[in-house]
Amino acid sequence: MSAHDLGFAPGQVLDGRVDLRLATTVVGGEVHYRETVGSTNTVLRSMADAGAPEGTVVIAEEQTAGRGRSGRPWDSPPGVGLWFSVLLRPGRPASELTPLSMVTAVSVVETLRRDFGVGAFVKWPNDILAGEAGLKLGGVLLESAQAPGEPVEQLVVGTGLNVNQCEGEFPEELSGVATSVRMLLGKAVPRLEVLRSLLEGLERDWGLFEREGFRSFPGRWRALSFTLGRTIEVASYAGTVSGVVVDISPEGALVVEGTDGRAEVWHGDVKALV
Questions:
Q1: Least packed by Cβ within 10 Å: which of 63, 165, 184, 188?
Q2: pLDDT above 80 (res 124)
Q3: Which residues of 26-43 are buried (b: 16+ CB within 10 A; e: fewer)?
Q4: How many other β-carbons are positioned within 10 Å of the β-carbon of residue 171?
Q5: What is the pLDDT of residues 69-93, one digit of tens each?
Q6: How many angstroms separate the Cα of 129 from the Cα of each of 48, 118, 125, 162, 167?
Q7: Mean of the pLDDT values across residues 258-274?
Q8: Are strands 239-248 and 254-258 parallel, antiparallel or unpaired?
Q9: Strand partners, 235
Q10: What is the 3-class SS of the chain, one letter each residue?
């Protein structure tokens, strides 16, 4: 499959509903295609500052400074993955938006399962894994900008998904750690089809979250969780918590049963011990 199977021209601005045939009302109203960027999140944040409308998408063939949580680098080679960001303008307090990374990850995983038969899972809070070994397939990164105490007027939701990498194409440090849709299915997949399905699913689930909050998502998360029932260690600025993951709270916190009882974990890096 061509490295340019998305079929867009460098620098092209597309109408997602016409050019991508998106069945959406907000997401993808404008789709900005780039050959190479540092980070699609960074590009879209600049566009947001300049007044870009809600639903604007930036997608790139390659990121040279792609990043995940805590600023970790994200391998984003040209022509094989989906590296894209979507602008939301929620106008709500940041405290109400905390579960949105989980909502996004659940939406992506359900789309991959339903539309492409990929056995994906969610690792709390926003990693996308695949297979019994929990190989890294993708991830979600939310970045916002607002004054202290003010509602969030700009929220950039970045998604990275390994689509058509083959065995041996990942950097040495990711060998045996990462996988792709192609490796899981044994065949290449048109990236435009995956992008279309993901964006349509995200609009549906973000709309549901906007109307009803997080209450529709805990059950869906439990059904897809790679973390539930595992003994883990979570390291954060508040210290380290270890124990068995027994649930997720109605607000999206990880509920961990440890030797000192139950604790709710809101932030941190999860390391599976069993």
A1: 188
A2: yes
A3: bbbbbbbbbeebebbbbb
A4: 11
A5: 655 666 788 999 999 999 999 999 9
A6: 30, 10, 12, 11, 17
A7: 82
A8: antiparallel
A9: 240, 269
A10: CCCCCCCCCCCCEECHHHHCCCCCCCCCCCEEEEEEECCHHHHHHHHHHCCCCCCCEEEEEEECCCECHHHCECCECCCCEEEEEEEECCCECHHHHCCHHHHHHHHHHHHHHHHHCCCEEEECCCEEEECCCCEEEEEEEEEEECCCCCCECEEEEEEEEECCCCCCCCCHHHCCCECCHHHHHCCCCCHHHHHHHHHHHHHHHHHHHHHHHHHHCHHHHHHHECCCCCEEEEEECCEEEEEEEEEECCCCCEEEEECCEEEEECCCEEEECC
Q: What are the residues facing 158 on neighbouring strands? A: 85, 141
Of 2.30.30.100, 2.30.30.220, 3.40.109.10, 1.10.10.10, which CATH number belongs to 231-272? 2.30.30.100
What one-letter code names the amino acid at 58? V
Average pLDDT over residues 41-67: 93
Query: Closest Cα to residue 56, out of 80, 104, 22?
Result: 22
| d(C-alpha 254, C-alpha 225), whole Å | 11
Where do we find the tokens 């926003």?
A: 126
Query: What does the pLDDT read at residue 260?
Result: 84
pTM of the model: 0.93
The answer to whether the 13-224 and 231-272 domains have the same CATH topology is: no
Which residue reads 């960074």 in tokens?
Answer: 42
Please provide the CATH number assigned to the domain covering 13-224.
3.30.930.10
| Closest by Cα among 76, 37, 32, 71 to 50 | 32
Q: Is the separation of the CB atoms in 77 and 177 below 8 Å? A: no
User: Where in the chain are the domains?
Assistant: 13-224, 231-272
Six token digits for residue 78: 């040209």
